[in-house]
Design goal:
Elements (H helix, E strand, L loop, with lengths): L7 E7 L7 E7 L2 E5 L8 E5 L3 E12 L4 E12 L3 E10 L4 H20 L2 H10 L4 E3 L2 E4 L2 E8 L2 E7 L4 E5 L3 E6 L7 E5 L6 H13 L8
Antiparallel strand pairs: 1-2, 2-3, 3-4, 5-6, 6-7, 8-9, 9-10, 10-11, 12-13, 13-14
Length: 217
């Protein structure tokens, strides 16, 4: 995060076209505050930054009878004892799709930059100190990366030496594979379904390519 970026972000979120209640979301470096569903209670869920343990995000397509009728934008934070804070809103039939997609991108950037970019240097230090870092059920150490691939004969674990590891990035997921045999030794991580997939990708890119991750892909 650069000095020019705001220290507090505030958003007003409406669930969908039929929703009358607008919920306030506030992001700062120290906490997340999200207004409750009941417009009369004036209650908020507040999560301290140090209590956040995991993050995932993505877009789910809403299927109609014969074609997609819209999309649901999802950003989720796991905190405390595996509690989950969900921020979701809908764009139906293309209405307000541009505005909702921009809102989604801004919220995602805020979550990523406030709460997860600062963690990569700390994880990198633990890695260089010889610790094993485990994200998305994937142990990462100086000895290599352990992945489990689902084959026709059943799941099988592989150790990819760090010098043979390769990260291939895509819009909704990334693939970790072996340069020697990428068709066989590989694992796909979904930003929507796998907790901390983006954090794992950021750490691996930093280790393998010396990249400093400033934002999401």
């Amino acid at each position: 995060m650069t000095e020019s970026q705001p220290q507090t972000l505030q958003f007003n979120i409406r669930r969908g076209l039929l929703s009358k209640h607008t919920r306030q979301l506030i992001l700062t470096k120290k906490f997340i505050r999200y207004e409750g569903k009941d417009p009369h209670s004036k209650s908020f869920t507040e999560v301290q930054a140090e209590d956040i343990t995991a993050f995932r995000y993505g877009i789910r397509w809403l299927q109609g009878y014969a074609f997609n009728i819209g999309r649901e934008y999802q950003v989720e934070i796991q905190y405390g004892n595996k509690q989950v804070l969900k921020i979701c809103f809908l764009s139906l039939y293309g209405i307000h799709r541009k505005e909702y997609h921009e809102l989604y991108a801004q919220i995602l950037d805020g979550f990523w930059n406030f709460y997860f970019v600062p963690r990569i240097p700390k994880l990198l230090k633990r890695f260089t100190d010889g610790e094993v870092i485990e994200l998305c059920n994937t142990p990462v150490s100086q000895d290599g990366i352990i992945i489990s691939s689902d084959l026709l004969t059943g799941p099988k674990s592989y150790v990819i030496p760090m010098e043979q590891a390769e990260v291939r990035t895509y819009t909704h997921y990334f693939v970790l594979c072996s340069k020697e045999d990428p068709g066989k030794i590989n694992k796909r991580y979904s930003f929507l379904d796998d907790w901390n997939a983006l954090l794992l990708m950021g750490l691996l890119l930093t280790i393998l390519e010396g990249k400093h991750v400033e934002g999401h892909s």
